[in-house]
Write a structure and sequence with these properties.
20 strands, eight-stranded mixed sheet, 471 residues, alpha/beta, 35% helix
């Protein structure tokens, strides 16, 4: 799931290799009115895509395809047999769907397993606590770690109380504001606790809503700082311990974690295309990630995003459409470990960066879309607003800022326009990285609408005569 935000504002378009650029040195080759008229001519095509996805034979297809995969395979943690099996199944599915240039691109990815884990409050009373170890965490000794707790609400408070932290288990009860601001406690919590001599850290789950549900995710160690075990606890337990210490209670916890890190494993990015009819070397990239965490089914994060990306190509193919540029589907591996598969893809393909018109990633849920998040030049944004106007029949026309995603940020930082799908983030972060991320959280009708948006945007941008202008 994405949480890094970048802003790009530029005045000049880089000259592109082939095909025509709309603006060079702020001088338009065509008036914006002409571009608007070109986009308006896609109205009938957009309506045909919408009708097929939302009302026609393809309705519920992405949901049914997704359910079949996750019910068969389950979760798909980086380095696991589940992810390996899912990749092989998807490669075969894409070939059977008739897509072109279906292949796997090899990547070495992290392999971590949580093992058995438990946390028990011993004082001031006995209570078993729900936990989920964080990705790449080390384990505890077999006998566990038994220590008093220090509860803090921020890194600043931890630093102020550094002397109290030595030899204790630090519990973070940070307030949830939004994901991008709050996730730093999950990512950096162990390092900051280790710097002041703590034995372990327990982080309040980064979640917008909780029914006693811990949420996992990646954490990062830092060179030169001792590595300590770290896990997420529920919102409810973090708040309970905060209340207890405010009343003067001493809290003691026994933490046991069997987590282990193994050598990197073999994996693959999964790629399929509809080859462009006029500028086949130019690309509109549509993507989601196939890996997930090892709890729940990974249906929402990011099965939905991966499957509406596949569905976008299926819808375009079903209608017998072939855009001028190549539509490339990439199902990333090891996104949850920091975009490992996407970074490998970027390194392998960046020599052709001038041929990428738009990179798209769906990794924030496939609930009813509010619109499209977009990062690019002002001129590219104006074009995207016209493209989104084609989605008036389903009332999804807004263009927001911050189109970044973990897997496409490598391209966006180099000036390639980027887009992501925006929907109900409160609902998304209620299930995110938890055991609740199952098909029960998904809605087939909302997935239909998300797929229609994804297909219309990707097709029109791929078929317009010129590439999107860059910063």
């Amino acid at each position: 799931m994405k949480f890094l935000l970048f802003t790009f504002v530029g005045a000049h378009l880089l000259a592109l290799n082939s095909g025509k650029a709309i603006w060079r040195n702020d001088t338009s080759q065509r008036t914006f009115q002409e571009i608007k008229e070109e986009i308006a001519r896609y109205g009938d095509v957009a309506k045909a895509i919408i009708d097929l996805a939302v009302y026609g034979k393809a309705q519920n297809r992405s949901y049914e395809r997704l359910a079949l995969l996750v019910d068969t395979v389950g979760s798909r943690l980086s380095g696991s047999k589940g992810l390996e099996k899912a990749i092989q199944i998807m490669c075969q599915n894409l070939k059977e769907d008739g897509l072109e240039n279906v292949h796997l691109e090899p990547v070495k990815i992290p392999h971590w397993e949580r093992g058995e884990e438990s946390a028990v409050m011993l004082e001031p009373r006995m209570q078993k606590m729900a936990i989920l170890g964080l990705g790449s965490s080390i384990g505890t000794p077999p006998e566990g770690i038994t220590a008093e707790v220090l509860v803090v609400t921020s890194f600043d408070e931890l630093r102020r109380r550094a002397r109290e932290a030595r030899g204790k288990i630090v519990v973070y009860n940070q307030p949830y504001t939004n994901y991008s601001n709050t996730v730093k406690y999950r990512v950096q919590g162990a390092v900051e606790a280790a710097k002041v001599g703590a034995l372990a850290s327990l982080i309040r789950s980064v979640a917008s809503f909780s029914i006693y549900s811990p949420h996992t995710g990646i954490q990062e160690y830092q060179d030169g700082v001792p590595q300590i075990p770290t896990a997420c606890i529920t919102v409810e337990d973090a708040e309970m311990m905060s209340r207890m210490v405010s009343h003067g209670s001493k809290i003691v916890i026994q933490l046991k974690m069997g987590a282990k890190n193994y050598p990197d494993a073999d994996s693959f990015n999964t790629v399929a295309e509809i080859t462009g009819s006029k500028y086949p070397e130019q690309v509109v990239l549509v993507s989601g990630h196939l890996d997930s965490w090892d709890v729940g089914q990974g249906a929402m994060d990011d099965g939905g995003g991966a499957f509406i990306s596949w569905e976008a190509l299926s819808l375009i193919q079903d209608l017998g459409l072939r855009p001028k540029r190549t539509l490339r589907l990439v199902l990333w591996t090891a996104e949850e470990q920091g975009g490992v598969g996407a970074f490998h893809y970027y390194q392998s393909h960046k020599a052709n960066i001038s041929n990428y018109s738009l990179v798209m990633e769906s990794d924030a849920g496939t609930f009813l879309p509010s619109g499209l998040q977009f990062t690019g030049s002002d001129k590219a944004r104006a074009i995207m607003k016209e493209v989104m106007s084609l989605l008036q029949p389903i009332n999804v026309t807004q263009v927001f800022s911050a189109g970044e995603g973990t897997d496409i940020n490598f391209w966006i930082q180099e000036g390639v326009p980027g887009a992501s799908l925006l929907d109900d983030l409160y609902k998304y972060f209620s299930f995110h990285h938890s055991r609740g991320d199952t098909m029960t959280a998904m809605d087939p009708k909302q997935m239909n609408v998300a797929a229609a948006v994804w297909a219309v945007v990707s097709y029109v941008v791929a078929d317009m005569e010129e590439m999107l202008p860059r910063s």
